[in-house]
Amino acid sequence: MAETTTRKAPVEVVVGILMKEDGDVLLGQRPDGKPYAGYWEFPGGKVEPGESLFEALRRELIEELGVEILDGEPWCCVEHVYPHAHVRLHFFICRQWRGEPQSLEGQAFAWQGHVAVEPLLPATIPLIEWLNRLRWKTDQV
Ligand SMILES: Nc1nc2c([nH]c(=O)n2[C@H]2C[C@H](O)[C@@H](COP(=O)(O)OP(=O)(O)OP(=O)(O)O)O2)c(=O)[nH]1
């Protein structure tokens, strides 16, 4: 009998990097009850059926932070296999939004220039170095 390999499609996730004019970015701590509770991440979550990536990001940031994003520049895409899930993360840089972030899911959050919060979700760690380079380039303009 022919051997078949079934590979499950990754779970699509959108992630928003809210960036202030001075380059500070917002991170949140994953609430209790989720895998990797206590780890720091950028706000976001899973895309629901029928949603575009931007619609999903807009919804997630309203649900998590009470913030309505007005823009979102697609930045990079990273895949990671965790014990709990295989995820494909779509990162967006958001520079304009309405409202002040609030902790609607009981999570801690922090604006960071040089990102110093720990631990970070494993798939997010390489992003910090890329983000520093992006910030450096923006500083040179
Ligand atoms: N939001 C976010 N998720 C990340 C980052 N890095 C990273 O590996 N992830 C992973 C962790 C999770 O496996 C997945 C996000 O799923 P989630 O469970 O937080 O999504 P959700 O808010 O829709 O959760 P739920 O409704 O199922 O409770 O992406 C990041 O920087 N931000």
UniProtKB/TrEMBL annotation:
Keywords: DNA damage, DNA repair, DNA replication, Hydrolase, Magnesium, Metal-binding, Mutator protein. PROSITE patterns: NUDIX, NUDIX_BOX. It is an enzyme of class 3 (hydrolase). InterPro entries: MutT-like, Nudix_hydrolase, NUDIX_hydrolase-like_dom_sf, NUDIX_hydrolase_CS, NUDIX_hydrolase_dom. Belongs to the Nudix hydrolase family. CDD domains: NUDIX_MutT_NudA_like. Its EC number is 3.6.1.55. It holds the Pfam family NUDIX. Its cofactor is Mg(2+). The keyword Signal does not apply. It comes from the Bacteria. Residues 9-134 form the Nudix hydrolase domain. This is 8-oxo-dGTP diphosphatase. Coiled coil: none annotated. It catalyses: 8-oxo-GTP + H2O = 8-oxo-GMP + diphosphate + H(+); 8-oxo-dGTP + H2O = 8-oxo-dGMP + diphosphate + H(+). The keyword Metal-binding applies. One of its GO terms (molecular function) is hydrolase activity.
